[in-house]
Automatic annotation (TrEMBL):
InterPro entries: GTP-CH-I_C/QueF, NADPH_dep_7-cyano-7-deazaG_red, QueF, QueF_type1. It catalyses: 7-aminomethyl-7-carbaguanine + 2 NADP(+) = 7-cyano-7-carbaguanine + 2 NADPH + 3 H(+). GO terms for cellular component: cytoplasm. This is NADPH-dependent 7-cyano-7-deazaguanine reductase. It comes from the Bacteria. NCBIfam families: QueF-II. The gene is queF. Pathway: tRNA modification; tRNA-queuosine biosynthesis.
Length: 151
């Protein structure tokens, strides 16, 4: 499979989308179809807006997937995730919605997302979603985010 780079945001000047609905996620062919490997993206400074108070919410997102035919192109993923900075949604909606969007785009063999959110109203909310049991033999490291502890 060849890639038509002119259709990707990669290597192009790309403005930050105003919202997730305006963002465009790009996918590229997986050069190792049939090989079971884990691809991981970590977004340590994810930001969205509380839909009730309008205050910013901060979290760490960890996205793990076993690619099928497609990989997510990282620049487009960065722009997509950054587009949430002015988007009002609850933690559960952000985390699961991002996961479902990526699953629809990539059609991976397996997918999981962990949303590790900093406290809102004194309570941290962590959200986890996956498409099913991980395939046998897939190396699945811990997501590496410690449980929240007060300081």
């Amino acid at each position: 499979m060849s890639i038509d780079a002119s259709t990707l945001q990669l290597g192009q000047s790309s403005a930050l989308p105003a919202s997730p609905q305006e963002a465009r996620l790009d996918r590229v062919p997986n050069p190792h179809v049939g090989t079971h490997y884990l691809a991981r993206f970590t977004c340590p400074e994810f930001t969205s807006i509380c839909p009730v108070t309008g205050q910013p919410d901060f979290g760490i997102l960890v996205i793990d997937y076993l690619p099928g035919q497609w990989l997510v192109e990282s620049k487009s993923l960065k722009l997509y995730l950054a587009s949430f900075r002015n988007h009002g949604a609850f933690h559960e909606d952000c985390t699961v919605g991002i996961g479902k969007t990526l699953v629809d785009l990539l059609e991976p063999e397996w997918f999981r997302i962990g949303g590790y959110w900093y406290p809102r109203g004194g309570i941290p909310i962590d959200v986890f979603w996956q498409t099913g049991e991980p395939p046998k033999g897939l190396w699945l490291p811990d997501q590496g985010v410690a449980p929240y502890r007060g300081r």
